[in-house]
Amino acid sequence: MMFFSVFLLLSLVKAAAWSLPVFDVESPDLVALREVGAAVVLNHGLDLSLILSTTRGAFNRTGFRSTFVPRGGESGGDVEEAKESFVVSKGELLDAFHEDDGRVLEKTYADLAALARRIVDAIPPLRGCCDKDADDTAVGRLVHYFCPVSPETTDVVGSAPHTDWGLLTFVVADRPGLELFHGGSWRRPPLDSPTLILHAGDYMAMTVPGVTSPRHRVVLRTTKTRPSLVGGGDRYSLVFFYYPDSDAPVPEDLSRLGKDLSVLQCQAADTRSCEPLPSTFGALVANKWREVSRR
Questions:
Q1: pLDDT one-digit tens code per residue, 237-278
Q2: In angstroms, rounded to a whole number, what is the distance separating the alpha carbons of residues 32 and 185?
Q3: DSSP states of the chain
Q4: Which pairing describes strands 38-42 and 22-24: parallel, antiparallel, or unpaired?
Q5: pLDDT on residue 115
Q6: Which positions ≥6 away from 82 have C-beta within 8 Å?
Q7: Residue 101: in which H helix or E strand, if any?
Q8: What pLDDT, on a 0 to 100 scale, did the predictor assign at position 228?
Q9: Which of 110, 124, 151, 263 could form a Cys-Cys staple with 202, CB 3.0–4.6 A?
Q10: Element housing 22 (H / E)
Q11: Which tens digits make up the pLDDT trace of 86-119?
């Protein structure tokens, strides 16, 4: 048991040495999204500490009316994900949460949508994909991952391995847990302080040659000794999914992508309920939300 624990700690330290590339908003460059599919965002102008404190607070207050997904309410795979979440869209934020929280989240939603548009406008193949209802259909999620105290070293699956369906995803979290599959193994960036992470999504991989939609997961590891080394404890995060316009076409020839993208896979508990690939992204993402629901 001691050997196993030491081995685990050493493997995590090794993983912690791997760092994500950076994506500077002031000079957008697709290199990071081609090599890894994810990057640390610089010069974003967001108050990440305020966003995280608001996210944590939302789970401790009553009176909200947003869509609440309880633990076990959804899964992108065949395991129960140890999380609960709120799902919010534009126009719901002030009514859905405590007044102060609503104002912070409304501004965060607007700032992230503007940031996404700025990135999209800098990528020629994407120009024109988000001029109609993209800002209105973007989805924000406040997520609480559970990581109970354990007498032994334990891995807790917060989010099963998946890729994101949309165009861009922004993530900020209060502790480690994010892992990306890169170079043939799972790697954990050392995100010890609030950091804004950008993921390319499946739709970007479909429409921009060379871009990678990274396979990723959330794994919380806890041990009764030295928990800080393995990121033990509950985790809170805000995730913002930016989609193309609802009528954005789904490319007809996707053979170059294989079957690695979650948006092209059947993620339903009963695979017989999955539908053929539709012609527009709006219809496609509506199908995907139905597939991952476990309620």
A1: 999 999 999 999 998 877 666 668 898 888 888 887 888 889
A2: 18
A3: -HHHHHHHHHHHHHHHT----EEETTS--THHHHHTSEEEEES----HHHHHHHHHHHTT-----SEEE-TTSB-SSSS---EEEEEEETT-HHHHS-HHHHHHHHHHHHHHHHHHHHHHHTSGGGTTTTSSSHHHH-EEEEEEE-----SS-EEEEEEEEE---SSEEEEEESS--EEEEETTEEE-----S---EEEE-HHHHHHSTT-----EEEEEEE-SS-GGGTT-S-EEEEEEEE---TTPBPPS--GGGTT-SGGGS--SSSGGG-----SBHHHHHHHHHHHHB--
A4: parallel
A5: 96
A6: 71, 145, 146, 147, 156, 157, 158, 220
A7: helix 99-121
A8: 44
A9: 263
A10: strand 22-24
A11: 888 887 766 667 778 888 999 999 999 999 999 9
Report if pTM > 0.70: yes
Question: Are the beta carbons of 58 and 98 closer than 8 angstroms?
Answer: yes
Q: Does residue 275 come out as left (phi exceeding 0), alpha (psi in the -120 to 50 range) or beta?
A: beta
Q: Which of 86, 2, 131, 104 is nearest to 47 (CA)?
A: 104
CA angle 55, 139, 268 (to 5 degrees): 105
240, 170 Cβ separation under 8 angstroms: yes
pLDDT value at residue 150: 64
Cα–Cα dist 194/280, whole Å:
35
Residues of the chain where predicted confidence (pLDDT) is lower than 50: 1-17, 225-231
pLDDT recorded at residue 66: 59
| pLDDT confidence of residue 229 | 39
How far is the first Cα of the chain from the last one, in angstroms, to the nearest whole number?
A: 39
**Amino acid 190: pLDDT:** 81
Tally the residues of the chain.
295
